[in-house]
Amino acid sequence: MSKYLRLALFLIPLCVVSCETVKVDNNDEILTRREQKYKNLDTLFSDDAFTFGNAAKSDKTGEIGIGVNSFLWRASLDTISFMPLKSADPFGGVILTDWYTSSETPGERIKVDILILGRQLRADGLKVSIFQQKLDHGQWIDQPADPATIRELEDIILTQARQLRIKNGK
Predict the structure, then answer these.
(1) Could you read off the pLDDT of 116-154 as tens digits, one per residue?
(2) Could you tell me which InterPro entries the record lists for this protein (predicted)?
């Protein structure tokens, strides 16, 4: 065996073993950014976001709040409260419902997705998607949702969010 081959056989396993012990952890950096983002939140329902727990007694370190407008969040949940909730992410501003069938129209069902885009109470800070299906010979067939219905649902949510904001004195 040549001495280069012996050297390679010795160095390759040594390099592989040494690479296994190297750990890359960006968790400290992520936590720091997260703490900076939420460190000034100190009210339960502010215009920008809300915090959980007893905010009045906290020293504002490590508080976690939602990343979207709390009035839009609450108004959205209140507006679709009659529908079964599939998922709600207050940090990403995503609310997803499961299929809902009204007793008045048993052959149709709808599903609503709501995305809250920011921390300001603005009309363009809300995106609503409605999915509609109709029962045809035992199978659910997708139907296009009426854009006017989507607009009407957005208006209801925005109106309720403004009323919540006024009630809260902001």
Answers:
(1) 998 888 889 999 999 999 999 999 999 999 999 999 999
(2) DUF3576
- CATH number for the region 70-167 comes to 3.30.530
Structural Rg of the chain based on CA atoms: 26
Q: Quick one: tokens of 108? A: 């149709």
Which structure tokens are listed for 145? 């949702």
Q: Taking the CB of residue 74, how many other CB atoms lie within 10 A of it? A: 16
User: How many helices and strands in the chain, by DSSP H and E?
Assistant: 4, 5
Q: What is the pTM of this model?
A: 0.60
Q: Which amino acid is it at 119?
A: R
Domain ranges of the chain: 70-167
Kindly tell me the sign of the dihedral angle through the C-alpha atoms of 52, 56, 59, 60. Answer: positive
